[in-house]
Structures are given as C-alpha cells and as structure tokens.
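Apologies for my clumsy wording, but could you write out the amino acids of a protein and the tokens describing how it folds?
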Amino acid sequence: MSKTYKIIEVLGTSPDGFAEAARNAVEEAGRSIKAMGWFEVDRLGGRIDKGTVSEYQAKVKIGFRLLSPEELRNA
C-alpha cells in the first residue's frame, strides 16, 4: 500500500530560545495533527523590544502521513 504525505509550515514562539520555539511549534501542531513523522527548521527570527530580544521564532516545516478512512476511525 502506498502512502501519501503532506507538509505544513508552523511558526513557533518562545521567550526562552530557538530550540524551545521549534519544540512549541511541533508540540502544538501535534495536538490536532496525527501521524507526524518529521520536521525541519526553515527559518529563525525574533522580536526586539527596546533593544533586546523579547521573543524567539522558529518557522518549522512538519511532514505527516495522510491517514486512510479506516485509520482515521481507529485513531
């Protein structure tokens, strides 16, 4: 049986660093997306307030497998 995958982009944020921003993106997406299999960080950025970094941002691509109707019923 062949499998089909989809890729989405998500922007995660954190006040603590880039790794935490990427982790937040993946974990938040995982609350509503099943069968996630991989991610890659596409871009890093952030917000500056009064000359200091106030927010880290990670644009993350997440790949997941599209489930069959049977798999969706059993998920």
Observations:
- DSSP finds two helices and three strands in the chain.
